[in-house]
Amino acid sequence: MVKAITQSEWQAEVLNSPIPVLVDFWAVWCGPCRLIAPIVEELSRQYEGKLKVFKVDVDQEQHLAMQYGIMSIPTLLLFKNGKVVEQIVGALPKGAIEQRIAKHL
């Protein structure tokens, strides 16, 4: 299961990660977020060891959502060496998400 991450863990788990990190910004009330949740889970298993995957509830972690300019959800951010290298907005099919992530692994 994809772990929810909080502001207090952000620096260590995302910014200082030795491997790329995919972060799913979502909310409980968001229908499209529920659509891509199984895809995000699948990707976390598929790329285990090559990619860390976390989720951020934008209602509980508003500071993180604001810090990264999250205007609509779902938004997936891919971090590499502490920087955003890919931003995927909306509920895209697995293949499209995979294609955007794969080039950074």
Keywords:
105 residues; alpha/beta; 4 helices; Glutaredoxin; 38% helix
**Global mean pLDDT:** 96
CATH architecture label: 3-Layer(aba) Sandwich
**Could you say which structural class the secondary elements and strand pairing correspond to?**
alpha/beta
CATH topology group: Glutaredoxin
- The tally of beta strands, per DSSP, is 5
Largest sheet: 5 strands, mixed
Percentage of residues in helical conformation = 25-40%
CATH superfamily: Glutaredoxin
Order of helices and strands: EHEHEHEEH
Strand order within the widest sheet? 1-3-2-4-5
Mind telling me the C-alpha Rg?
12 Å
Low-confidence stretches: none
Please count the helical segments.
4
Please give a structural write-up.
- The chain has 105 residues and is an alpha/beta fold.
- It has a single domain, classed as Glutaredoxin (3-Layer(aba) Sandwich).
- 38% of the residues lie in helices and 26% in strands.
- It has helices at residues 7-15, 31-46, 62-67, 94-102, and strands at residues 3-4, 21-26, 52-57, 75-80, 83-89.
- It is globular.
Give a nutshell description of this structure:
This protein has 105 residues and is an alpha/beta fold. Helices cover 38% and strands 26% of the residues. A hairpin with a 2-residue loop joins strand 4 and strand 5.
Describe how the helices and strands are arranged.
Blueprint lengths: L2 E2 L2 H9 L5 E6 L4 H16 L5 E6 L4 H6 L7 E6 L2 E7 L4 H9 L3
Parallel strand pairs: 1-3, 2-3
Antiparallel strand pairs: 2-4, 4-5
